[in-house]
From TrEMBL:
<comment type="similarity">
    <text>Belongs to the arginase family.</text>
</comment>
<dbReference type="GO" id="GO:0000050">
    <property type="term" value="P:urea cycle"/>
</dbReference>
<dbReference type="GO" id="GO:0004053">
    <property type="term" value="F:arginase activity"/>
</dbReference>
<keyword id="KW-0479">Metal-binding</keyword>
<keyword id="KW-0056">Arginine metabolism</keyword>
<dbReference type="InterPro" id="IPR020855">
    <property type="entry name" value="Ureohydrolase_Mn_BS"/>
</dbReference>
<dbReference type="GO" id="GO:0006525">
    <property type="term" value="P:arginine metabolic process"/>
</dbReference>
<comment type="pathway">
    <text>Nitrogen metabolism; urea cycle; L-ornithine and urea from L-arginine: step 1/1.</text>
</comment>
<feature type="binding site">
    <location>
        <position position="134"/>
    </location>
    <ligand>
        <name>Mn(2+)</name>
    </ligand>
</feature>
<feature type="binding site">
    <location>
        <position position="237"/>
    </location>
    <ligand>
        <name>Mn(2+)</name>
    </ligand>
</feature>
<dbReference type="GO" id="GO:0030145">
    <property type="term" value="F:manganese ion binding"/>
</dbReference>
<dbReference type="InterPro" id="IPR023696">
    <property type="entry name" value="Ureohydrolase_dom_sf"/>
</dbReference>
<feature type="binding site">
    <location>
        <position position="105"/>
    </location>
    <ligand>
        <name>Mn(2+)</name>
    </ligand>
</feature>
<dbReference type="InterPro" id="IPR014033">
    <property type="entry name" value="Arginase"/>
</dbReference>
<keyword id="KW-0464">Manganese</keyword>
<feature type="binding site">
    <location>
        <position position="132"/>
    </location>
    <ligand>
        <name>Mn(2+)</name>
    </ligand>
</feature>
<dbReference type="InterPro" id="IPR006035">
    <property type="entry name" value="Ureohydrolase"/>
</dbReference>
Amino acid sequence: MSPLSTAAPLRASLIGAPTDVGAGARGASMGPEALRVAGIVAALTHHGLEVHDRGNLSGPPNPWLPPVQGYRHLAEVVAWNRAVFDAVSAELASGHLPILLGGDHSLGLGSIAAVARHCRQQGRKLRVLWLDAHADFNTSELTPSGNVHGMPVACLCGFGPRELTHMGGEAPALQPHQIRQIGIRSVDPGEKRFVHEQGLEVFDMRYIDEHGMRHAMEQALAGLDEHTHLHVSFDVDFLDPEIAPGVGTTVPGGPTYREAQLCMEMIADTGRLGSLDIVELNPALDVRNKTALLAVDLVESLFGKSTLMRQPRPAR
């Protein structure tokens, strides 16, 4: 039985969202199938979860057009996030742990907005861990690309078009103090100022280099209790591209395999994981599905894969 079994549902639901409509490169739309081919269902089942694969959501195709008033494909991004919001909300309401298989990181809007609404309704606290090479705190004024996968955290904090900021019916969906960003190493100058103005807590790669992943995770997870829902939004470009080449926006100098494993194992040790995004996997840029296999390996650690030194958490 999974060590999370006393604090999180044993039933998990996979929700595929095969779109790259919010990204600047094509290919993340193939991510859900690559994760399935890499054995994510068998891996989770092995760790005591009852896995329900809900298949893939449907939505508009990627029109691949330039930005309009600062946003690329806004209508399509909204449609996909509405579908994700509804699907994640349904799984949470049924007591399942939703696992979003992306797709680009703009989909984190719908996923986290659904989790935030669920926590408000249940009177639970929410902590979001944003594992990423990028802060994703851009606005249309700060980025010329208009790619919404660089904006989801800002939109969740209330900065952006109403169609996205009010996805859960209440804005902002998140307060900055609810988010911890880990592994950040690529931030635009204007975005950097905005992050500081809003007081986001960021454990960037310099912090990890200076203090180590263990200390960074201890700080990021501090204050969790039995009333806290922990959401992990795992952008695969969080990882160093030497070990995870299959992403559209590689940034050198990310966490090593062991650092990433420690990150995931410490999250698992809390017993608070309640929902998960796996996004930005781009099989078109991968090598023999290497990145998808690594992502599944790390997700196993989120759900209790352990070395000999780790003892199962006692039942409560």
